[in-house]
Amino acid sequence: MQISNEDYKQFKPLLFSLGYRLLGSVIETEDIMQETFLKAFEINEQNIDNKKAYLCKMMTNRCLDVLKSARYKREQYVGPWNPEPLLLEKLHTFDPSEKMIQNEGLSIAYLRMMEHLTPDERAVLLLREVFDFPYSEIANIIEKKDENCRKIFSRAKQKISFVEGESLNYEKNKSMINRFIVAFQMQNMDALLELISENVTLYSDGGGKVNAAVRPIVSLPNVLALLFGILKKAPEDSYFEIKNVNGQPAIIIYMNGTLQSILSFYICDNKINEIYITMNPDKLPIL
Predict the structure, then answer these.
(1) pTM (2 decimals)?
(2) DSSP symbol at 88
(3) Residues 6 or more apart whose Cβ sits within 8 Å of residue 217
């Protein structure tokens, strides 16, 4: 297959977006993306008229192989698993025209729910809902019949129905996060009760590399107790910024001069319903 430099520039954002959504890992996605392009350069078939579909098929199948072999690794993971945060401000390789590909189905809440899907369900849902592939092309990519793909899509949608109400309005959510920060710093319980769901759940991902809760923290009192405990132990030189992570505002926390953690949020019905703290150093971007 003749892959030009222009093809590489054109399809790289698409393949990265697809792979990252499937795997939740930047490093694994970049490795598989490079493997896909290298393999495509070696293919001699001249009758491939849809390079986009063919490259997506190669990328998807490689990601599915990883997913089907990664279940054991997930089971051995210490504590809750959060997707690797994607700091969009660092991605200079993306053209502005790819904004839709960057943001739809990219939130931490959405990607975390993808863990409840089988690899095939994950692939069909993304290809159909995020990338708008017709069922005929999806069937060719994952090598199943159209009818099967429709059933897989329906089943996947039912499994992740809770994120349907997720607020993705960046500026509105940023305002809410700022109010959360002020209320938290002032320990204004009335304001926190207004902002956070009583049934909030916090997922702390340390991966066994740093000290973190090994089980999800459930309910507002327990979550606030943990957060206030972290604040109390924070060194004096700690500071934070709000940055665009996975298309949504997130709190980037620095301690002792280095990036210590990233707090992302699932906001629905004007309430913070879930909080994701990623502290595993292997998952934190180099700033």
Answers:
(1) 0.90
(2) G
(3) 201, 202, 204, 223, 226
